[in-house]
Design a protein that fits this description.
The protein is mostly beta strands and 120 residues long. The chain is 0% helix and 62% strand.
Length: 120
């Protein structure tokens, strides 16, 4: 079992910045990828950014504005969000893809979500 604890959501004016942090903990797992997804009201959950083996992947809508980083030793993923727009407002969820040891089975884990509000 892997637990994810998120922090850093809140309210910001359009054009402002926020950082989200996600800390993963658990035993007998190797976390191979961490990422952030978001779900706006009335919409489906969508990928924002992921990072695995030092390689980052971003949704087109956030490229150039958001940066994801990961401290693999501490299993912490940070999403830095700059130039926030009203359409970035959503509940942001941390995701971790982990491989169980020693079975080598993959599992996906989710955080509880943190609200990001952007006012214009």
């Amino acid at each position: 079992q892997v637990s994810l604890v998120e922090s850093g959501g809140g309210s910001v004016q359009a054009g402002g910045s926020l950082s989200l942090s996600c800390t993963a903990s658990g035993s007998r797992f190797n976390i191979v990828e961490m990422g952030w997804y978001r779900q706006a009201r009335g919409k489906q959950r969508e990928l924002v950014a992921t990072v695995a083996s030092g390689n980052a992947n971003y949704a087109e809508s956030v490229k150039g504005r958001f940066t994801i980083s990961r401290d693999s030793a501490k299993n912490i993923a940070i999403l830095r969000m700059n130039s926030l727009k009203s359409e970035d407002a959503a509940v942001y969820y941390c995701n971790a893809r982990a491989v169980e040891l020693p079975t080598a089975r993959f599992y996906d884990y989710w955080g509880q979500g943190t609200q990001v509000t952007v006012s214009s």
